[in-house]
Each structure stands twice: as C-alpha cells, then as structure tokens.
Amino acid sequence: MDARRQRLTARLLLLLGVACGIGWLATLDLSHKISTDLLDLIPRDEREPELMFARELATAAHARVAMFVLRAPDEADREAATAAFVASLRAAPEFAEIMTMGDTAAPDALARHLFEHRLDLLGPGWLARRHADWEAAGRPAPWAAWLAETTAARLEAFLARPEAMAFQDLIPADPLLLVPDLVAQVQALAQDPEEIAGRSLIWVRTRDDPLDESAQAPVIAAVDTALAAAHAIEPATTLQWAAISRFAAENRQRIRGELESLNFISFGAVLLVAAVGLRRLYSALHLAPVLLCAVLAAWVGATAAFERVHVLVFVIGSLLGGVAIDYGFYLQLQPPLHLGESYTAKVRRLLKPLLSSALTTVLGFLLLVVSDLPLIRQLGVFISAGLLGALAAALLWFGQMKTAQAEARGFLLRAWDPQRDLGRRIRVAALCAAAGVALVGPWFVRWHDDIRELEALPAAMRAEAEEVRALFGQGPGRTLYITRGATPAEARAALGRFLAEHAAHHPEASAASLGLALPNPDDHTAVVSHRRELADFPARLHEALARHGFEAEAFTPFVEAWTAWLASPPCGYDALVAGLHGALRGALALSFSTEPGASWFATVVDGAPTAFAPKDGATIALNRLESLNDLFTRYRISALRLSCLGLGLVGASVLAIYGLRRGWRIFLLPVGSCLLAFGVLGLLGQPLNLFHLLGAFLGVCLSHNYAIFTAENARWSDHPAPSVRLSALTTAVSFGVLAFSRIPVVAALGSTVALIVAAALLLVELAPPTARLPRGASRA
Asked: Tens digit of pLDDT for each residue in 514-531?
C-alpha cells in the first residue's frame, strides 16, 4: 500500500470511528443516562440491611420532607411573616402537606384517637404488665381484687407528682393511667420548647420525587416566592431550610460546573504544556484530536456498558487527558531510526511498547469491573475505553499525516548523567532519602472514608442542614432504629423484644416509639381471657378508690367506658393498626409503615453511648452517614485487593513480555513511585480514602508506561526519552488541576496521581529502569 493510500485509509477509519461514537451519544437521553443521585453509588443488591433500607427511604415519602426555620427580631413580626410564608407554600402545587410545628392539630388528632381507643390500644399491654406483677408477687389476692387495689395505689402516687397537673381532666376517664404512661414513654419524641424559642419551624412534604431534576427547580422557586412574601411582612426575616431536592439541585449544578471547568482547564493545561515542550505550536495542536477521541471513546464505552452512569465518573474522567496524551507524545517525539523511515516502519518498531503499556494498563483497569461498587466498575470501563480510544486515535491521526514527527525543546532533550551532574554523593543521598520515605512513610498512613466527600455542597449549606435537623429533633446525640417485620404484628413483636433488650444493655437511655401505642400481638390475644376474668373489676375498683380517699362516683366515665369495652367484640389487630396510622399527620405519619411485606416501626433512642445491635437482626441502627462510611471502607478494602491483583497482573505481563532481567527493573519503577507518594502523604498526616487508592492505581499504571517507554528508549539513547519527560509534565499538570477541585474525592484522586507521576519522573531521572551503556558503546 502506497503512502497516500495509507493516509487516506487512516483518515477514513478515524472519521468512521468518530461518526459512530457521536451517533451513539446522539441516540441517548443523557439526562436519564447520567445520574447525580448519591445512592446510585450504592449497589442495588447491597447486602447490608441498613443500606438497603436507606435506599427504600430515599424513594419513599421520607425523602420528600423539607424542613424550614424562620427567624425575625420581633416575635409578633415573626409570627406574621411565618403565616405569610406558610400561606404562600400552601398556594404552591409542589407541596402536598404543610405543618407549622407549633400547630397542635396533628398531636390533638392523635391524642383524641388514643383516648377514644385507649382500652383497645393500651389496655392489653397494661393488663399483661399487671398480670406479670401479680404472678411475680405470688398471687397474694384474687386477680380482680389485687388489680383494683394496685390501680388505686398507683393513681394516688401519680397524683402526688407535679406532672399529674396536665392530666387532671383525663383522670376520671382513665384511672388506669393508660395515656399518661404512654406519654411518659414517648416524651423523647417531643421537642424542647426552649431549644426552638425565637424560631418558627415548618414541616413540609413535597409531591414529587426530590431526585427528579424537573421537580427540583419548582420547589426552590416556590420557597423563594414564600420567602419574598415573608420579607414583605418583615424584611429582617431569615430562612434556613433543608431538603433533599435543594441539596440534589445544588450538588448537580456544582458537579456540572466542575465537569465543564475541569475538562476545559485540564484540556487547556495539557495543550499548554505541550506547546511549551514542543518547538512548533501546531505540533501541540495535533494532540487535541487524540484527547478528544479518547474522551469520546470513554463516554461511548461507559454509556454502552451501563444503564446509568454517575456524573462523578465524567468529572473524574477529566483526568483522561493526562493519560491519553502519552501515546501521542511517544509517536510524535520518538526519532526515526534512520533517515527516510516510513510511518509504518516506525509504528512496527514502537508497537511493542505501545501495546505493552496500553494493554497491561487496560487489563488492570478492566479488573475493576468485578468490584462491588458501581462507581469503581464504571471508572474501570471509562478509563479502559478511553485508553484504547487514545491509542487507536493516535495511530490513525498521525497515520493520515504526511509527517508525524515533532521536535522537543532543548530542556527536554538535555542528556544528563545524575551521577556526573549531581555528584555521586548527592545522587546516592537523594535515592536513600526516597527509599527511606517509601519504606517508612506508608506505615503512618491513616484511612478515613467519608461519603460526604462525594458531594460538592458548600460547607455553609451542610452546616445549615445540620442545624435545621437538630432543631427538628435529629441531632447527633440521638440514634434512630428501625424494627421490621413482614406484617405490622411481626414488626410490633420484634419492637417489644428490641426495647426489652436495649433497656437491659442501656438502662440510662430513653427509647421512644409510636409503636408502643399498639399492643404486643401476644398481649392482644391474651386480652380475651382477661376480659372474662375482670367482669367485676369496676366494682372492685370503686371500693379500692374509696379506701384511698377518692370520690368513687367521679370515675363514672371510666366505668361506662369499661362496660362498653367488655360488651363490644374484640377489635382485630389489623383494624387497630389501620386506625392508629390513619390518625397520624405530618412527621408522625412517617414514624411507622404498614406496607405488606415491609412493615416497620421507628424508635428514637436518646442518651445511649453507642449504637446497639439486637440479636435477632430485625432491628437496625439507621445512622445513614456512619453506615455509608462503613460501606465505603468495606469497598476500599475490596478495591485494595483488586488493585493488588491488578498490579500483580501488570507485573506478570511485563515479566512475560520483557523477561525477568529487564522486567523486574521496569516493574520496580511504578511500585517505588507509589510507595514514595504514599510515604509522603503518610508523613504529612494526610488521611486517605477510597479515591486516594484509585488514584494510586492509576498513577501506578501511568508510571508503568513511563518505565516501559524509558526501557525501550534505552535501546537508542542514553538519556530518558523526551516523550516520557513531556508526558509526565503534562500528566502532573493535568492531575494537579484536579487537586483544586471543590469535590474532595476528585481532589484526592488528582493530588495522588500527580504526586505518583512526579515521583516516577524523579526516579526515571535519578535511576532509570535500565542500565545505561558506557559512552561510545553501540545500541542493539
């Protein structure tokens, strides 16, 4: 094939590949294909129960809750501004339910229902506890008589306490103290009025999915309109609010901004360094198509392999420019073996190091596809596809040019001997220092995984959210537990076991759950026999109350209620559950679920030093932040195993291609540069996470490329190839840009790669991975 036809073929193949890639992306709905949901980073089949439940809550009504806190200097003005704010929200179609926390309508509705059905809801549990006490006391008297006497004694003791004043009107109808006992058990759910003094708290439930991008802007706009209405009443009104829709919109906007800016800056930085390192500017511009094709291939590969791809993959993928340019530099800057060497002959000569570096790197990254974490799998495919695209694009782009040779500037061509130019002592001292840091520093590395580092939220917004949640009773001193069961009855039975077990382990803590308003299923079943045995209980109680100094006739409302309860058929358990759930409004309605197959009760524990893990597994501590941090710690360990396996495969590939004598020296460079970088980070006290590990794996693959190119270059030159020097500089700059990202994990990955690449370049200059031949000796 003549040169002209060869160039035409390369051009057509390149255009065909680009057209296919653009055509594929044009067929996609990118708004659906690209996800900004943090929970998409968690496997859908995650085996940890708390994380599975966190996923369920993220798609349920809980995720639609928004919490608002209004402040104003004057209380009257604040109340008026709050009324205007709430009225504006009620007029907006985006909100399904709005409650001012000072509004007593919801608690009153619940209290009314509990009082009207107290004997069905609270009576069975009360009777079971009293019967157990009677049995424990050795049955000192007939059951009905003993129960009447202890009831009167408990009532007398209760009325001597200050809190009894709040129940004075209730006592004639409830001498059993069913409602006061429940109130004492669930008081941890109530808010302290002193904590919210001077503020108006508003609880809102939105209609649409807060993670739906189309539903987020209308919610934010409606809140802005409501705040404007409040400002019309009191200009000094301030608003704090927390909502998933707000955070998701802010996070998406900032990540998209990062995606655009980082790709642009990284791309520009690579070209700028290339322009500085090459004698002719247009030579640097020839690298742009290689970079663009690499990004196109990466996008096509990731979107074709996965149903949805998280946007962080594309943000982190902005580093691809620093990786993909290696092949372009190597093809451009490698001098011809002799005058008139054709491009085809040059490619044949360079194909071994090109394929060795590309395929071993791709092999290592494709190993990440077996990771449990979707983000790691997607990154593995994204980078592998991008590297293959970069290699193909470099071969085809320079193959369709008449001349593919570029000249590096003098500072990249300078041949130097570190032992001659630095002096033997300085070189040895530098290598010893590097070895010391590499061997000692990693032992000081501290690992800390925090899922919040995946977000791009500003610190002020995160602090605002924490303050708002604390005002709504979701402070750090509390632990939320979820007790689950296939049916409400099963969940309630498990709740009883959990509360008893927790009280035994943490007697100093208080646990509150609205599930306590329902009877234990066993107690509900046993109440039938109790009802038969206590037909004369009202008369016995009348006598006992009189002995304790009460006017027995004042308790006629209770006698009438008890008589009616005995005469009516027992209420079924499912009917009790449905009635109680139907009486709940606002935040109270989210305290338990009666869904078939997925029933659960929430319990708030205050004052326990540590989260408690029950034996039966039906109850989980739902601290979502700690759970997700533990998840990423587990996945970091999994990624470490995969990275070590990938590194082993890369090393084995190098040894198989280059033999033991040259292979181990080539493989020593990436391992040494990685240890040196981790040593520096460890000695600096920088806490590391999963993304430092991913950056290290990428950095090892890059330094592995430099080792191969340097080893191959040693066959023709006695100094490091200018392509290696320029590639390392552009990569360090490219990843250095990422180190300034506002997304902590992106900054972690960028800084790690930049540090490893710098370490690799330092080692290449001080101790290249192949022995230098004596001056004047011929190269093979």
From this structure: 888 999 999 888 887 777
Residue 435, pLDDT > 50, answer: yes
What integer pLDDT is reported at residue 68 of this predicted model?
93
CA distance 299 to 369: 16
- Rounded-to-integer distance, Cα 732 and Cα 266, Å: 10
**Worst-scoring range by mean pLDDT, 102-106, 365-369, 533-537?**
102-106
Is the pLDDT reported for residue 622 higher than 70?
A: no
Tokens standing for residue 737: 């840009």
pLDDT the model gives residue 716: 59
The angle formed by the CA atoms of residues 190, 222 and 467, to the nearest 5 degrees, is: 35
Mean pLDDT (the chain) is 80
Mean pLDDT of all residues in 706-721: 67
Count the alpha carbons within 13 Å of 633 in the hemisphere toward its beta carbon.
12
| Total Cβ atoms within 10 A of residue 369 | 15
Distances (CA, A) of 324 to 270, 329, 335, 362, 757: 10, 9, 20, 12, 14
**pLDDT the model gives residue 717:** 57
Return the CA Rg of the chain.
36
520 vs 125: CA distance, rounded Å: 7
Looking at residue 422, its pLDDT comes to 56
**What are 239-258's pLDDT values in tens digits?**
999 888 888 888 878 877 77
Which long-range contacts (C-beta less than 8 Å, at least 24 apart) are formed by 350-353? 350/712, 352/657, 352/712, 353/708, 353/709, 353/711, 353/712
> What 3-state DSSP class applies to 683?
helix
Return the number of other C-beta atoms located less than 10 Å from residue 616's C-beta: 10
260-271: burial string, b at 16+ Cβ within 10 Å, e else: eebbebbbebbb
Residues 6+ apart with CB under 8 A from 202: 67, 68, 69, 70, 82, 85, 86, 89, 98, 99, 100, 101
pLDDT over 50 (residue 779) = no
| Phi, psi (deg, nearest 5) at residue 205 | -120, 125
- To 5 degrees, how large is the angle CA 494–CA 496–CA 499? 110
Distance between CA atoms of residues 379 and 694, nearest Å: 9
**Beta-sheet pairing, 446-447 with 238-243:** unpaired
Cα dihedral value 669, 673, 676, 678, nearest 10 = -130
Domain locations in the chain as residue ranges = 3-35+278-408+417-447+626-772, 104-189+514-590
Q: How many CB atoms lie within 10 A of CB 634?
A: 15
Of residues 405 and 22, the one with the higher pLDDT is 22
Q: Which of 769, 474, 631 is nearest to 41 (CA)?
A: 631
- Pairwise CA distance, residues 145 & 417, whole Å: 104
Residue 401 and residue 231: Cα distance in Å, rounded? Answer: 66
> DSSP states of 695-749 as a string?
HHHHHHHHHHHHHHHHHHHTTT-SS--HHHHHHHHHHHHHHHHHTT-SSHHHHHH
| Cα distance between residue 121 and residue 118, in whole Å | 5
C-alpha separations of 626 from 15, 56, 345, 449, 622 in Å? 50, 17, 58, 10, 9
Q: Which DSSP string corresponds to 136-166?
A: HTT--S-HHHHHHHHHHHHHHHHHTSGGGGG
Q: How far is CA 482 from the centre of its chain?
A: 20
What is each CA distance from 4 to 142, 342, 344, in whole angstroms? 112, 12, 12
Give pLDDT, residue 552. 81
Alpha-carbon span 717 to 728, nearest angstrom: 19
Give the CA count within 13 Å in the CB-facing half-sphere of 351: 9
Closest alpha carbon to 405 in 337, 311, 481, 325 = 337
What is the tens place of the pLDDT at every residue in 656-679?
Answer: 877 887 778 788 888 888 888 889
Closest CA to 704 of 297, 300, 387: 387
Q: Which residues contact 49 (CB under 8 A, 6 or more apart)?
A: 617, 620
CA-to-CA dists, residue 239 to 70, 98, 200, 234, 489, angstroms: 5, 16, 10, 12, 42
